[in-house]
Design brief:
Number of helices: 7
Strand content: under 5%
Order of helices and strands: HHHHHHH
CATH class of the largest domain: Mainly Alpha
CATH topology of the largest domain: Arc Repressor Mutant, subunit A
Largest sheet: none
Length: about 190
């Protein structure tokens, strides 16, 4: 997304800020929705959380440094919104499930089933990560953002960010292996 980054960062008028906000909302809503899902927000809460993210974006847009990449800034806002959400007493752990799939032709059904199983495995692995590690892992491994930008977005040192990424990778790998092994032992033997 280009937000006239070649121009020096100037104070934007109220009307220009509103146009910028609408542009960000239109272009980045799907990105925010994905982040909320990856951070473990319940499906029924995602709409409210997305609203909260964009309210925060609107409030702080006048302070946004247009020389910085937009997505890490949005990521930091979404992370803080989800952190607050998860701290609330009303947040309880639940196992996320994919939406009900519609019937399809047999070859497509198998491909959809395998993809759904992989997504469920990744989601289950992500659920086992503490939110601070999960945020760094999602942003770096799934969104492709550089560690330095993640650290800046979260307001932490580069070393802390690298440490969280290393711990998250290790914990995620172990979790996925354990879940996959558990699923294999629960599957009835085909040799019977």
């Amino acid at each position: 997304m280009t937000l006239s980054q070649s121009e020096p960062n100037k104070a934007l008028s109220g009307e220009a800020l509103e146009r910028l906000f609408v542009q960000i909302y239109d272009e980045q809503f799907d990105y925010i929705w994905r982040l909320l899902r990856r951070f473990g927000a319940r499906e029924r809460d995602r709409e409210d959380l997305a609203h909260d993210v964009f309210v925060a974006v609107h409030r702080s847009l006048g302070r946004y440094d247009q020389d910085r990449p937009l997505r890490p800034w949005l990521f930091g806002i979404a992370f803080r919104v989800v952190s607050d959400y998860r701290r609330k007493a009303s947040f309880e752990r639940e196992i996320p499930v994919d939406e009900h799939a519609t019937a399809s032709t047999p070859p497509m059904a198998l491909a959809h089933l395998e993809a759904a199983e992989r997504r469920a495995l990744v989601t289950a692995g992500l659920e086992r990560l503490p939110l601070d590690q999960r945020a760094v892992f999602v942003m770096h491994e799934m969104e492709g953002v550089a560690v330095v930008e993640i650290a800046r977005a979260l307001g932490i040192s580069d070393n802390t960010c690298y440490s969280r990424l290393r711990l998250a990778r290790d914990r995620f790998t172990k979790a996925v292996r354990a879940i996959a092994a558990q699923q294999r032992t629960q599957t009835p033997s085909e040799s019977s």
